[in-house]
Amino acid sequence: MFVVSKKLAYLPPKFLRSISTDILRIGSVTRAVTPRINNDQSLIPIFYYEKNLFPPSFVRHLEWLMKKDKLGQDALFVGPPGPTRRHLILAYLELTRKPYQYLQLTRDTTDSDIKQRREIQNKTALFINQAAVNAAIYGHTLVLDGLEKTERNVLPILNNLLENREMNLDNGQFLVSTQRFDELLKLYTKEQLDKLNFIRVHEDFRVIALTLPPLSDYKGNSLDPPLRSRFQLRDIGNEPLTFTEYTNLLKTLHPNIDNQFLEQLLSLASLINSTDLETLKLIHFPFDRLDQSVRLAELIPNVTLADCLHRIYPYEILYKNSKESIQAIQHMFKKLTIKQQIENSSKKIISINRNETQAIVDYEMNKKQYQITVSAHNTSSPIIPPTFIKTPYHDQLLSDLMLSHAIGDICLIGPKGCGKSLIIDQFASLLNYPIEYFVLYKDLSARELLQQRITNENGDTLWQNTPLIEAAIHGRLLVLDGIHRLNNDTLVSLQRIIQDRELFLPDGTRLLRHDRYDNLKNPNKNIRRIHPSFRIIALAEPPSNTNPGSNESSSIKSSSEQNWLNAETLNLFLYHQMRSLNLAEERQIIYSLLSCSNQSIPAIDHLLQFVHELRNSPETQLKTVARSLSTRNVLRIAKHLKNNSSNYHTQLRDQLIRQTSAPFLPRLVQDAFYEALNKSGLEKNQETISSNINWKQSTTDNKQLKSS
After folding, report:
1. Around Cβ 192, how many Cβ atoms within 10 Å?
2. 361 and 275 in one domain?
3. Distance between CA atoms of 137 and 70, rounded to whole angstroms?
4. Phi, psi of 180 (to 5 degrees)
5. 3-state DSSP call for residue 59?
6. In this structure, is the dihedral angle defined by the CA atoms of residues 481, 487, 492 and 496, taken in order, positive or negative?
7. If we measure between CA atoms, which residue out of 459, 463, 435 comes closest to residue 447?
8. Euclidean distance between CA atoms 594 and 106, whole angstroms
9. CB under 8 Å to 107, separation ≥6 — which residues?
10. For 549, which of 240, 256, 608, 694 is 20 to 30 Å away at the CA?
11. Packed helices 602-615 and 667-679: angle between N→C axes, nearest 10 degrees
């Protein structure tokens, strides 16, 4: 976000020693900058530095970084979550014209991801250099993002490379420091050293690492002391931007925004991160996302501040089970005279006019019309819309999603079976977006999010793109279904593709944002262009933790599913909450899909009433059963009841028991469910008992036949 400077400058040409060398000055430090001529030029960051928008405190960070670079020292940036630390480093590398290798560290990172990976080509095993080795040989800067996320026994393999610039490689080669290699050249020839498999480490090789502060608010492993001692540390969290610097920066980026809006926005963010409220353990407010709220207010001037805040800091979801935290934030709203609740404003999409990669949306809010530009797809064949029954609530939600789509990527949070996938299908059809679905699971690694390793018929190893990469290249709408199931660091590994639209892939390919790719003069075949229409929508269930700041564990779900919405993931998406259908809405949808909107069927009304009693029940056992009675399953039962309406009590009870697999539920849950059936007038009779026994017996027999 903040990668621009007004105090960074190149000295005038009269001070230059040669035509091809410039002198860069940051603060009081100067250094020579030589442009790259070979293929390394494509690895130099671009468009991270923008003039006249760099706060003075950030200039001091870059000045410190240049001092360490001149001394030949490796650096470690410590700071709160967000892209600021990374953007500072990439802005410095852009100014100094230094190519870089980027390595996102996770719990799945191994030594083969750092040094060399073995591949099989033409039935021969080959060792392919990875980020650390390539950076050492060619003099690139190695950026290690997320030191706290790796296992403690992984990164120590870099200790010798950091301290002595030496490393043993798996293919028998040996990296030798610049000084020692040059001394050996005085005694031996280059050919003799090559036969010994000695490789010279480039003198420009540097390592810059990123990590989070060792606080209880952030998850991670403690750093290995020998590894930590090899870096020069800079805590950018100790010197954050001041209130005035934030105000001036946002005002420069968005000159038409109201001053009162900025003051209230920054005041609330500062209060949430205040040290006076440490006992509440509030999740760190994502300051790097303030720009998203201001952009939203600039698009729609009459949008409320509460509406903007809920998209970047959904506190009602974060602290659902913590009344004390919600009351504290509500008190902040009241103190700053901010309306606590989002107004029931009328939002409506009037029309959508699509062109090649964009669409002009005529948007109405509170009887005022606006035009917003959003990303769209230029596919020749129109996307067939799904069977979608409109309700006022879903129309409002689609309007909110369209507004967030104009700004960034979206995360839709809602309980299981509330219709998240269907409304995304409807949203995509409005903009003619082809969808790439990526269903996520718990054990998915960060590497498998990007590419999966396969073998061909000859036994050679290949890398196959996942739906994420295919969507990025072809400009489709990527739907990440179930991000709450991923481990925290696996989800955070997507930060570069989300925040920067840039990515290094396991097979050596690099994805670049469309404008950065278009700026390259001669891009090589290993660089792919990210389509400007590419967007991400993530689907998730609400976090179930009792207190976001606590370390309590649950026996029902893993800690990653409980606390997936945290300080790091808040920097990724614009968040929207989708509730379950109420009785009237679900009745309207069921009757419309059954083509009997003008009549009332007692069996279906009884079904809907019973299902909503289960969903709203305070008993945990009944809520467990209600999870299997989603709208899709209720529709399945309703179709059966429509065709068999006579003596529906017995049939309804039988269908509910079959749909919930009641005979196989735990005894306490089963008893509570049967009691709820009896209370609702669906008492059991002899016919129902015999049918249940026969169904259970037939199911058991089928399992025995399959096993035999």
Report:
1. 12
2. no
3. 19
4. -70, -40
5. helix
6. negative
7. 463
8. 49
9. 149, 150, 151, 487, 489, 490
10. 240
11. 140
41 lies in the same domain as 176: yes
- 306 close to 340: Cβ distance less than 8 angstroms: yes
Calculate the CA 597 to chain-centre distance. 41
Residue at 443 is within a domain: yes
Domains in the chain, number: 4
Distances (CA, A) of 112 to 109, 115, 134, 463, 511: 8, 5, 13, 15, 21
Q: Can you name the residues that pair with 436 across neighbouring β-strands?
A: 478
Sheet with strand 347-354: strands edge to edge: 347-354, 358-365, 368-375
184 with 296, same domain: the answer is no
The residue segments making up the domain with residue 479 are 347-543+564-577
CA neighbor of 503 nearest in space, from 527, 482, 524: 527
13 lies in some domain: no
Q: What is the pLDDT of residue 704?
A: 52
DSSP H or E stretch at residue 334: helix 323-335
Say if residue 348's pLDDT is above 90.
no
DSSP letters for 357-384: SEEEEEEEETTEEEEEEEE----SSPPP
Kindly state whether residue 168 falls inside one of the protein's structural domains.
yes
Beta-carbon neighbour count of residue 707 at 10 Å? 6
Query: Within 13 A of 672's CA, how many CA atoms are on the CB side?
Result: 18
d(CA 410, CA 539): 9
Report the relative pairing of strands 410-413 and 451-455 from DSSP bridges. unpaired
Instruction: Show the tokens assigned to 314.
Output: 């959904």
Helix-then-strand count for the chain, H and E: 29, 26
CB 204, CB 196: distance < 8 Å = no
* Same domain membership, residue 258 and residue 209: no
What's the pTM? Answer: 0.88
- Contacts of residue 273, defined as CB under 8 A and 6 or more positions apart, other chains included, come to 282, 284, 285, 287
Q: What is the pLDDT of residues 287-306, one digit of tens each?
A: 999 999 999 999 998 888 99
Asked whether 466 and 450 are in contact (CB, 8 A), the reply is yes
CA angle, 481 then 485 then 488, to 5°: 115
Structure token pair of residue 624? 């467990």
Q: Which residues, 6 or more positions from 559, have their beta carbon under 8 angstroms from its beta carbon?
A: 553
358-417 pLDDT, tens digit each: 899 999 888 889 999 999 987 767 778 888 888 889 999 999 999 999 999 999 999 888
Name which of 334, 556, 533, 515 is nearest 432 in CA terms: 533
The beta strands (E) that lie in 531-676 are given as 535-540, 574-577
Largest pairwise CA distance in the chain = 102
Question: pLDDT tens-digit profile of 26-78?
Answer: 988 998 888 766 667 889 999 998 867 788 888 999 999 999 999 999 999 99
Same structural domain, 410 and 292: no
| Alpha-carbon span 85 to 147, nearest angstrom | 13
Assess whether 298 and 192 both reside in one domain.
no
- Is the C-alpha dihedral spanning 210, 216, 217, 218 positive or negative? positive
Rounded Cα distance between 421 and 436, Å, is 12
- The identity of residue 552, as a single letter, is E
pLDDT at residue 91 above 80? yes
Domain identity same for 137 and 175: yes
C-beta separation of 550 from 567 below 8 A: no
Separation CA 340–CA 338 (nearest Å): 6
* Nearest of 181, 114, 112, 100 to residue 147 by alpha carbon: 114
Q: From CA 288, how far away is CA 265, in angstroms rounded?
A: 13
Whether 206 maps to a domain, the answer reads: yes
Q: Which residue has the tokens 């596919």?
A: 379
